[in-house]
Design a protein that fits this description.
PCMT, binds S-adenosyl-L-homocysteine, about 30% helix, single chain, Rossmann fold, globular, two-stranded antiparallel sheet, alpha/beta, transferase
Amino acid sequence: MSDDADHIAERKMQFLFALRSRGVTDKAVLTAMEKVDRGPFIRGYFTDRAYEDMPLPIACGQTISQPSVVGLMTQALKVSNRDKVLEVGTGSGYQAAILSQLARRVYTVDRHKRLVTDASEIFRALDLTNITAITADGSFGLPDQAPFDRIIVTAAAEDPPGPLLAQLKIGGIMVVPVGQSDAVQHLIRVTRSETGFEYDELRPVRFVPLVEGLGRDG
Ligand code: SAH
């Protein structure tokens, strides 16, 4: 192998090792994260840190989540290849790209048009044809495509938004960080049954807040 190829293989191994040591153990999730390169989703100054397990800044004052958090949330969502998934908070598009490897179809929405445009460009370049990115206020879900088998929210809400609960199929799962943006938030898994909703608290997390309305750029 050339030095370059050696270096890339080594970084990839460290990346996967960091994921496993932080509790990402699901084989399919690890395979998806091995396959989808995080590099293209990070534009600007931080590309050389793409394989470190840390959140990084992206456009519009937002952040791409820490890879281990992406892995843990994806794992908690228990996605199958028959599932139609809604993601609220496209950001860089990285989480949607990971979901696209596991789900039948992924709809992802962000309140910033610029983020949706940038992410769509990367999905096209990587030939991820089962993702549709839309500019919208995701607190209302995506009524046109509802109901969903799985919903993942990657911004913190004070409570799981009602419209999202309503757009979850019976037997469906939603993963959402809940709490005030400047305090400790908890990752919650909501499972919908015939009789109602069941809530599991998974772990403390830190996300940017879910904000109402569209961003000023769109
Ligand atoms: N999942 C992303 C990281 C998300 S950061 C990734 O993989 O990179 C949180 C995102 O949620 C931001 O891009 C922010 O614009 C978006 N957001 C916040 N409130 C929103 C809302 N009401 N509707 C849609 N998107 C929202």
